[in-house]
UniProtKB/TrEMBL annotation:
Provenance organism: Sphingomonas psychrotolerans
Protein name: DUF1272 domain-containing protein
Ranges for region Disordered: 54-74
Superkingdom of the source species: Bacteria
InterPro entries: DUF1272
């Protein structure tokens, strides 16, 4: 199950689990749309492709809350 990390690792922008606009690689490194564009859709940590992260809403989000651990490297 995806961690649904709460922030962009590059700029620290909040990324809610129930909103679109987050991008992840296969290791779940997480970035906002603006940073993903700046990174040319490639993860700076592992070199993997950044893809749209699915959203988690409603009861699924209640049962499986998003991670609260922030990864911003600022």
């Amino acid at each position: 199950m995806l961690e649904m990390r709460p922030d962009c690792e590059r700029c620290g922008t909040d990324l809610r689990a129930d909103d679109p606009g987050a991008f992840i690689c296969s290791f779940e490194c997480t970035f906002c749309a603006a940073c993903t564009d700046a990174l040319d859709d490639h993860c700076p940590n592992c070199g993997g492709e950044l893809m749209d992260r699915p959203t988690r809403t409603g009861k699924a989000l209640e049962r499986h809350p998003a991670s609260a651990e922030r990864k911003f490297k600022g």
